[in-house]
Amino acid sequence: MLICKLISRRPKATRIAFNNLPLYVSLFQRKFCKKSDDVEGLENIPVERIRNFSIIAHVDHGKSTLADRLLEHTGAIKAGRDKSNQQVLDKLQVERERGITVKAQTASLLYTYNGETYLLNLIDTPGHVDFSNEVSRSLSACQGVILLVDANDGVQAQTVANFYLAFGNDLVIIPVLNKIDLKNADPERVCKQLHTLFDIEPNTVLKISAKKGIGIDEVLQAVVERLPFPSVDRNAKFRALLFDSSYDKYRGALSLIFVKDGSISVGDNICSVSNKKEYEVRTLAMLRPDEVPVKKLIAGQIGLLGCNMRSSKEALIGDTIHHVDEQVEILPGFQPLRPMVFAGIYPMDQSQHVNLRSAIEKLTLNDSAVTVDVDTSPALGHGWRLGFLGLLHMEVFSQRLQQEHGADAIMTAPSVTYKIKLKPTKQIMKDGSDIIYVNNPAHWPDHVKIEETFEPMVKATLITPDEYLGSIISLCMERRGVQTNATNIDNNRVMLQYDLPLCEIVVDFHDTLKTLSSGYASFDYEDNGYQSSSLVKLQILLNGTPVDELSNIVHITKSQTVGKQMVHRLKDIIPRQMVHIAVQAAIGGKVLARENIKAFRKDVTAKLYGGDVTRRMKLLAQQAAGKKKMRMVANISLPRETFIDVLKK
């Protein structure tokens, strides 16, 4: 409407010149978009005065609070302690509700040091293990990191994982202790932990309080002094790494890029290495943290690129962008993480299928770690099989679908991907191998065709106070874990490493761990390949008929326990009908557990008011014969809500 009013006020000859939407948008941006004088002339800042860095830490160690103070200290936002200045970079509703960072966010800061202006590109990353993909993507555009550790809680499991992730990428690490103002803070103890685990010298550790703003200037000085400037060439051909993307309903896919070589300007024609499709650069912006339009981005800078990408498949994370008709070497990207948890997602009603598909496509553009495959269920209809990095990742994705896109969906219980080696047959698989991968119990082959089964394993790291050590070891043994290492961090805390089956930890392991340790233990895991295991398909039979939607893949040692739990729950969920229903859990032809759902009974003798007893017996015999016949030919009708109640648990 604002664009239309602007054009309508101009003379007719001028209105005729505005025949395409991009010019309207350009006029709108000049009139209404936020401008900032402090970004003028950024192309004149030498590479030696540019620093690209991330903040990495365990959950709730103060990453977002430190990012807020850095924004305030450099003048990107006004100083204050109101709600508008809290979690500035956490823009998603789910982030503010849960108090966690889900999506890595970028902000360009201008900092004056020794009379010279430095451009500091900050990336605030998530801390939970399920969003480690965001961390690895962010580190691909950085030359250093701030390793933030709580001075009260000390080193946690995700601290260890993030350190080795940065160390493996040859990044410079600045250790920082946060929350030194707390009553129970013990900086000396935490410094010893850092020295024991990572060989970090205590005199290199900065001590700050992000909440009160203590030591923030020392952090900025350390970023300038310790971190190297990006190794780029401004005179070479343009190359940029696309390391993140988001979706805007008016501008399409927006790409966050790190300019490695050369420069890019509005109006340039570019293409990506992956799809070779050409685009015209419509908008360029720097995030401070709001978008500030610029005309040019040069090597060493991080910025937002808009070029009318309309499909989620076009913005490929890790892709190299270059000018049209120029041959460039592909930039080394990052290793994308493999999804570890799978769940089915179906619309509440099949009439909502198109809307849900559109919402999933837009959200997967914003979260490239999610994999999508089409799936069909006889009970729930057409849907998708989505792959996630963990259980929290799945919960957040489902919540964002509803909050950001208004899509109500049914999410089934999580499962993992199993590897199956089939017995040799005359029929050969399409790829010539006898190995298949299954993440849906309905696709599990018949046991007579299986030669060997494998389940995914993880290398788990647990850090706990020693008073909870016995309970945690018992928990890991119950979940079929094998201990590989144990290290004393200090006099009070122990770091344990276990090989655990992934299927044993995806549902309730984290919650049980927190309960046993009163919330003090921390947990992190990474993929550790496949291991041979005795896996079976636990089938649910209703009156002898198997129902694939209710089947499950379990270890043979837990099959009877899981079978009893399933049939007991189904007895309470399945509504009574006119026929008797036998609910059974079976493996192959062996029944492990059974429950009976009694049929409704009609009182056929209610009309009798006297007479011989043989009349009563005759009516009851006719009713019994009719029910027996009905049971032989009847197909049990289960409402859709029954499958939803079972599959969601």
Automatic annotation (TrEMBL):
Protein's UniProt keywords contain Mitochondrion: yes
Record's keyword terms, sorted: GTP-binding, Hydrolase, Membrane, Mitochondrion, Mitochondrion inner membrane, Nucleotide-binding, Protein biosynthesis
Xref: InterPro entries: EF-4 (IPR006297), EFG_III/V (IPR035647), EFG_V-like (IPR000640), G_TR_CS (IPR031157), LepA_C_sf (IPR038363), LepA_CTD (IPR013842), LepA_IV (IPR035654), P-loop_NTPase (IPR027417)
GO aspect biological process, one term: positive regulation of translation
Catalyzed reactions per annotation: GTP + H2O = GDP + phosphate + H(+)
EC number(s) recorded for this UniProt protein: 3.6.5.n1
GO cellular component: mitochondrial inner membrane; mitochondrial matrix
Binding residue positions for GTP: 57-64, 124-128, 178-181
Domain Tr-type G: 48-231
Recorded topology in the membrane: Peripheral membrane protein
Top-level EC class: hydrolase
Highest taxon above the source species: Eukaryota
Keyword check for Magnesium: no
Stretches assigned to coiled coil: none
Pfam families: EFG_C, GTP_EFTU, LepA_C
Molecular function terms, GO-annotated: GTP binding; GTPase activity; mitochondrial ribosome binding
Locations listed in the record: Mitochondrion inner membrane
Gene3D superfamilies, sorted: 3.30.70.240, Elongation factor 4, C-terminal domain, Elongation Factor G (Translational Gtpase), domain 3, P-loop containing nucleotide triphosphate hydrolases, Translation factors
Stated role: Promotes mitochondrial protein synthesis. May act as a fidelity factor of the translation reaction, by catalyzing a one-codon backward translocation of tRNAs on improperly translocated ribosomes. Binds to mitochondrial ribosomes in a GTP-dependent manner.
Family label: Belongs to the TRAFAC class translation factor GTPase superfamily. Classic translation factor GTPase family. LepA subfamily.
The name this protein goes by in its record: Translation factor GUF1 homolog, mitochondrial
Provenance organism: Acanthoscelides obtectus (Bean weevil)
